[in-house]
């Protein structure tokens, strides 16, 4: 069995990772090009994860906002483009072979997620490459 890896140590050269994360935000997103996807912000260290349209039905039941999970066997892809949800250089992509397991809750105080100040949104000083 794979050792649990810290999110900040993930690199895109393999898919057999095992991480323990808490889902701090979860939403369904629809686009004409990509169809329906499940999008998440996970903490241990902030990273974004995505479940593509053809896998949504496979994972929708197992994922809920506020829950802690162990994720096994997933891909890492560069996180780029407008409206990135985190500053982590990669995003997790679920595969048909990804496994989701329940685990003990990670503490609420554990977070690298840094919400922005509302006044910074209004005055336009934030980097628009990231979703705020």
UniProtKB/TrEMBL annotation:
Per its UniProt record, what Pfam families does this chain match?
DUF223
Query: Which residues are in the Replication protein A 70 kDa DNA-binding subunit B/D first OB fold domain?
Result: 5-103
What sections of the sequence does the record tag as coiled-coil? none
Question: What protein does this entry describe?
Answer: Replication protein A 70 kDa DNA-binding subunit B/D first OB fold domain-containing protein
